[in-house]
Design a protein that fits this description.
Length: about 350
């Protein structure tokens, strides 16, 4: 039996069309004209967008998925969590769907490793050198990783080890994601051929020349501006000397101008050892606003958290509103292509066709 959303304006990647009907059948989007009779949702005046994707979070427990869903985040990409936690949270219905790289790989000598030393399973993240790269990647594959997260933190990994990790991941068909929050880490990740850079530097902005190379090489960036801004704000509030937020914003401007795909992610977490902890769910709306402030148009920001995120992480069954795709949907009260803040005005959320927020 179909559920039909009546009179919605549907986001097509560039804007919203005239009011139409959208059907949900067996958890998938269907052609309303062919779907048959069923319950109706009075959605007139609403703006329907694909379920949002947060391309950088860290799991904390079942509450993570519930907080995400309440904010319209229907899929989240976990960037470092213990495999038992990931397994416990996969396959749950009515909450955000999870993909994961399992625990991120790092050098035992890095500042990141020292900061996270008390986190359960921390020692399992350590890769001493290039000779251990293949075994480390194969462990992640055996655990069910969807991609490989590498912490490029200097001092820490040498170039040979990052190169070996990327090569081993690619040999096994895994995308690689590099934590790179300093310009020297971005350089190392670029040389290694990492697929996705997450974070942007706080020490100095990515320049036009490097941005052009990254675009030419097909790299993708998840800048996590929410996290970068919160780090800067926390340091400033403590009175400690710290970086400016400006290099992060200017990096996104340069990357966007060069044509590098920008994907929305927040680094939301509840980890006491983390330098900052954006809130699961609500922080994605902050991220979209910061991306617009950094030069993306509102429709580009929407694509960064829907179709572009799906395309670059191999989520072929979502990220758009079209028959046959998974019915991850968010119904808004206002047009977010006019004001990106409208993504916060949520009337309803469906995950795989199940209503989890809002309208009956």
């Amino acid at each position: 039996m179909a559920t039909v959303l009546r009179g919605v304006r549907v986001f097509d990647g560039d804007g919203f069309g005239d009011p139409t009907d959208v059907a949900i059948v067996d958890g998938r989007i269907a052609d309303a004209a062919q779907a048959g009779a069923g319950p109706e949702v009075a959605a007139e005046g609403g703006f329907l967008i694909p379920g949002l994707i947060d391309a950088h979070i860290h799991l904390a427990g079942p509450q993570t998925q519930e907080l995400l869903a309440a904010s319209g985040v229907t899929t989240a990409l976990d960037m470092s969590s213990p495999p038992p936690l990931v397994a416990a949270m996969r396959g749950r219905t009515g909450v955000a769907d999870i993909r994961s790289g399992m625990l991120a790989l790092t050098s035992p000598t890095s500042a990141h490793a020292q900061r996270m030393s008390a986190v359960p399973g921390a020692a399992e993240t350590h890769v001493p050198g290039a000779a251990e790269a293949t075994d480390a990647v194969e462990r992640r594959l055996a655990q069910g990783a969807d991609y490989l997260k590498i912490v490029v933190d200097l001092p820490g990994f040498d170039q040979e080890t990052v190169d070996a990790l990327v090569a081993a991941a690619h040999d096994h068909g895994l995308r690689t994601v590099a934590h790179a929050s300093r310009s020297d880490a971005v350089d190392m990740a670029e040389r290694a051929g990492v697929d996705v850079l997450t974070h942007v530097p706080l020490d100095q902005p990515i320049g036009a020349e490097q941005a052009a190379r990254l675009a030419s090489d097909g790299r993708v960036v998840v800048p996590t501006l929410t996290m970068m801004r919160e780090i800067v704000d926390r340091l400033a509030a403590s009175g400690a000397p710290g970086p400016s937020y400006e290099p992060a914003r200017e990096s996104v401007r340069a990357l966007h101008a060069a044509g590098v795909p920008i994907i929305a992610g927040t680094d939301a977490n509840e980890t006491p050892a983390a330098p900052a902890s954006p809130t699961h769910g609500t922080s994605l709306h902050d991220e979209l606003a910061l991306l617009v402030e950094a030069g993306l148009s509102p429709d580009e920001a929407l694509r960064a958290t829907t179709s572009a995120a799906a395309d670059h992480f191999g989520l072929d069954d979502r990220g758009r509103i079209a028959p046959g795709l998974r019915a991850d949907l968010v119904l808004l009260d206002a047009d977010p292509t006019i004001d990106i803040a409208a993504t916060r005005d949520i009337r309803g959320v469906w995950i795989a066709g199940e209503r989890v927020v809002g309208v009956a």
